Structures are given as C-alpha cells and as structure tokens.
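[INFO] parsing input record for Haloacid dehalogenase-like hydrolase domain-containing protein 3
[DEBUG] input buffer:
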Amino acid sequence: AMLRLRLLTWDVKDTLLRLRRPVGQSYAAEARAQGLRVQPEALERAFREVYGAQSRRFPNYGRGQGLSSRQWWVDVVKQAFVLSGVQDGAALTALAEKLYRDYCGSHNWEVLPGAEETLSRCRQRGFRMGVVSNFDNRLENILSQCSLRHHFEFVLTSEAAGVAKPDGRIFEEALRLGGVPPGQAAHVGDDYTRDYRAARAVGMHSFLLRVAGQDPEPEVPPEHVLPTLGHLLARIEK
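[DEBUG] output buffer:
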C-alpha cells in the first residue's frame, strides 16, 4: 500500500550536504594562509575532542547558558588550535572568526549526489517539505548558498528549537510547522538513532540513508533503507 504522506522532513549534514574536505584540512589551510604552521591530522583530532567537550558542557550551542552559537563555535575553533600547539592568541581570534564565516556558505559545503534531483521530484509530487537538523542558525544561509533553500517550507535547527535530535520535541515542532499528523509525515536522514529511530518514536515514518560500505542496521527493514536518495520515491510509492 502506498504511504499517504503529506510532509517530508530532511536531515542536512551527510544527507543533503557534506563537507568538501575534513575539518582538519580546511582549518590547517586557513591557518597556513595566515602564516601559522599546524598539522591537519593534529587539528582534526583536537577538533573532535574539543567539539565533544563543548557539546557536553554547553549543549545545543550554549543556547540555554547565554552563549551565542557564534561565540560557541569561535571558542571551539580557538581551543582546537591551542590544543594543536598554536600559541598566538590574537591571531587565533581573527582566524576563528574567519573560519566561522567560511562555514556559512558553499565554499566548504557541497550538495550530495542525487539530492537536488530528489528534492525537485518530491516537490513536483506535491509533498510539503521541511528541514530538521542538529545545526546552528547558519543553516538557512548555507542552504541558500548551496541552492537548496527554495525546496523547503521551513528550516528547523536544534538551536531554534532549543532541543536536538533524538529528542522527539524537535520532530513534534516540525509536525506543527508542517501542519500534519505524524502518520502523514516521513523523515529522511543518515543517522540510525537521531534520524530513523527518533522520528519513528513520535509516530512518523522514516527512511535511513545508508552510505555504501556501512554495516546494515539489523532493526531496519530493507524497505526503509535508501542505498541512495534516488530510491526514496520508489520506497514511498511502493
């Protein structure tokens, strides 16, 4: 039986957009342009460590603790460089501000294969469309710069919602914005816990995008798995 869906919600990172290159490489290249020597691998490790610690200490970009997401990110970038052995504090502030701006656009992001075509076809079929993403408030601008924003009626970030996936309240807010009950909505994403299971927990349908070579999730029926985004409409209309 064909699913009676009216709303499709979408994860962004590694579902519709991906980083053009690893964070460590981008950060190191920008540092080199400012005359600072630092190893990409060291920066990558430092970034992951600092990002994890900052996320635990100030969840959701510090929203509940009076930090702006910009300040949250600038702190992360500076700490990652310090942990990688860069000492020059004044240079680091300017560098971190520039990197924060650089990640606002298509300079560092690229559209995943099949994303544009799939979004266009879904809109042509008359689905209402929205974004549900654990992201800060730069996301609107990033989607616009990457020419995807026009596909969506709304862009709901965890920063705006005040909660992050897998918290069901972000999906409930998306359903409110989309004006449909959960049984008439499906979420598309690449993360088993934050996307697939979290959406189903509030009564939505969901589809899990699996990158080639990833181990299959045993709890996900094959008809809910997308080997590519191009498989989505066939799954919905089966």
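[INFO] The chain has a mean pLDDT of 94.
[INFO] shutting down worker
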